[in-house]
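Researcher: Hi, I'm a grad student and pretty new to this. My advisor asked me to get structures for two proteins we've been looking at. I'm not sure of the right format, so I'll just paste the first sequence and hope you can take it from there.
Model: That works fine. Here's the first sequence with its C-alpha cells right after it:
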Amino acid sequence: MRNGARKTFAWLVVSILITTCRAQSVPGPRRGGQFDFQPWLEDFGQLTAEMAAHYANLESSQRERHMDLPKLRQETETKLRQACDEQQAQKNLRGFIKAFGDGHLELKWPKPSDQKTAGQTSSNSTSAPKQQSLCPRLGYKRSLTPGVDFSQLPAFTSFAGGDANWFPAGILQLQDRTKLGVIRIALFSEHAFPEACELAVRKLHLANSRECDTQCENSVERETADQLTAAIVRRSTELQAAGAAAILVDITNNGGGSDWVEAPPRVLSRVPLHESRLAFLKHEHWTKQLQEQLQNIETDLKNNSTPKRVLQEASARLRSGIARSQESCDRTRVWTDGTLDCSSLISDVLFTGGILPYAPPGSFASLESKTTLFHPLRYSYRESTERPPLYVLVDRETWSADEYFAAILQDNKAATIVGELTGGTGCGYTNGGIPAALRHSHAVVRMPDCVRLGKDGSDEVNGVIPDILVPRGPARHGLHESRKTVPCSERALTAENSKLLSH
C-alpha cells in the first residue's frame, strides 16, 4: 500500500471511530456535546486514594508482584480521557481493578433496577417469616458445584450413604492397586447446606416459625458447621474401612466459604495444624476489632480465669496492636513514583486463627476469650494421628477459604497439594470489611483488609503453588476435561503414594 493510500485509510478508520463514539447513546453527563470524562477521573482519583488508605494487598502488588503502579495509573487516566461513554469508562476502571489479579478487590455499579427491587423487598419483608421456615430465612440455600468427575474412570467406585448428598466420595484404584479415597468438598460454607441447617435447628429445639436474633443465628451456624464437620469425618472413616490407603480431597471449582473452613483440615490431618501470621491494616476498622478482642481478654483476667500468663500476654499484644493500628501511613506516593515510605500492615500481633498459633481441641472452654485466643475452638472437632495420608486437588478456580484449606495443610506438611496454581484471593473482609462508594458514579468498592501470610512470609493472594503440578486446558469440568485430568492426576498420585505411605 502506498503512503497516500495508507494515510487515506488511517483517516477513514479514525473518522469511523469518532463518528461511532459520538453516535452512541450516552446516559452519563456530557460537556459541550462530548462525553464528560472529568467525573470519572475524579472517581478514579478517589479509588486510588481509597486503595492507598486501606487496600491490604497494595504493598505485595508492588514488592512481590513488581507491578508498575504509576504506569498503570497513567494508562488508566489516559483511557478515561479517551472514553466515549459510561460503558467505556466503567470498562477502563474494571480493567484497572483486574490488573491486580485479586479476587477480593471488587468494583460494582448499582443497577437501575436496584432501587425498585429494594422497595419490593421492603414491602414483602414482614410476610416472609410466615411463608418460609427458619433456614431459608437465614439464607441457607444449596449451591454446590461439581469438581473433577472421577466417575469417568472405570477404576472408580462411588460411595453412597447419607452424607453423599453433601460430600460425594468414592474409591479410586491406582495402577499399583493401591486404593485412594476421594472426597468432594464443593464449598466451605454452612449456608450452602440447608439440609444440615435443618438438622441443626432440630437439635437446638428451635421452632421454624420463631424469630432468630444474632445469638440464635450464631448458634444455628455453629451447629450446622459441626454437623458438616462430623459428616466429613464419617466419609473419611468409611473410605478407610473400605481399604483406602490415602485420601484425596477435591476442592477444585470451589468459590471459598466461611470461617468453618478452619475445622475440616484439622479433622483430616494426621498432625496438629499451626496457623501462620495474619497481617492487618493500620485503620480504625481494625482498631475497633482489636478493642473488642481485648475486652474479652480483660473480662477473663478480671474473673481470675486461667491460664493467667496466656491471658496477660494476649492483653499486652492486643494493646500494642491497638496503639499501632492508630499510626498514620501515607502510601499515596506509590501511584506517582512507586515509592512506599511506610507500611500500613501489622504482621506480628495476630495469627490467622487468633492470638495463638495453636491450641488443642477443647482448650479454654470456660473462657469468654476462647475464640479470641484461637478461633477454630468455635467448632467441635477432634485431632488424630490415625488419619491416612492426605492429598488436596486444586485448580485455578480454587479461591479464598479453599486456599486457606490448602495452604495450612501444605505449610504444616500435612498434605500434598496436587493440581494448578490456585486463583489467588487470600484474606478477604473481616466483619464486613471497609466498603467505600465513589462519589460520582456511585460504584461500591470492596477490598481486603487483611493478609494471610504463608510460612515463607509471602502473601496468599499470589495463590497456592501445588507440590505436584497437573496442567489443565481451558475447558472446565466437562467430560473431555475429566478424561484428560484424572489419568494425569492418577499418574502423579501413584508416583507419590509409596513415598507418603512409608512415613
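Researcher: Oh nice, that was easy. Here's the second one.
Model: And its structure:
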Amino acid sequence: MTCAGPTTVGPLPEDVDEDAIEATYENGILTVRLPVVVDAAVTGTEIEIES
C-alpha cells in the first residue's frame, strides 16, 4: 500500500488502547479502529441478592 495524499497527525484520547489499534484499507476505504481501555470500576454492575 502506498500513501500519496495528505497526512494528518493528532493526539489520541487517553482511554485508547494503543497496542490494539487496527487499520485496514479495502476497496478504497480506510478503516481505523481505536479500541478503548475499559475500566472495570466503570463497567461493573452491582446486583442485589435477597436471601
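Researcher: Is there anything I should tell my advisor about the second?
Model: You could mention this: Residues 22 and 38 are 17 Å apart (CA to CA).
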